[in-house]
Amino acid sequence: MQTVKTKKKKRVKRGPKVESRRAVRFVVEGSRTTHALVPIDEYERLLMAEMATEAERVLDDPNTEWVDVDDLFAEFAAERVTAARKAQGVTQQELANRLGMAQTQISRIERNPDRTTVRTLKRIAKALGVDVRKLIG
């Protein structure tokens, strides 16, 4: 193994070649190896392997809490309706008046829109002057 000396008494050792045919380099301080310098493609391969291992751990964990995609959609829609309404400076009552519905229905949509239809979201978007895609993501 070839050793290259640096100014701060660190040595860089050239290690075995990896798949990309470029040498891995090690930084050695004293007698301890502190860093390994690898080609970016090898680094990305190692990173992806680590991410896959972490994902597998989460999937296998019995304490992992799963969320239904429809519930997640509804939660995002609620946040976006509220944000769009507030950005326009409109109260729930004013929005309800524009739509011809009760203020309590607007409140329910903003808190728990799981039973809100896309048609209602389209009406809300039109009343607020925003694209419906902003509300439903």
Describe this structure in words.
This protein has 137 residues and is α+β, with helices and mostly antiparallel strands. 53% of the residues lie in helices and 18% in strands. It contains six helices and four strands, in the order ββββαααααα. The protein has helices at residues 40-60, 69-87, 92-99, 103-111, 118-128, 132-136; strands spanning 3-5, 10-17, 23-29, 32-37. A four-stranded antiparallel sheet has the order 1-2-3-4, with no helix packed on it. Strand 3 (23-29) and strand 4 (32-37) form a beta hairpin. Helix 2 (69-87) runs parallel beside helix 5 and helix 3 (92-99) packs across helix 4 (103-111). The protein is elongated, with a radius of gyration of 28 Å.
Structural class: alpha+beta
Q: What is the end-to-end distance?
A: 56 Å
State the total count of DSSP E strands: 4
Percent range for β-strand residues: 15-25%
Helix content estimate? 40-55%
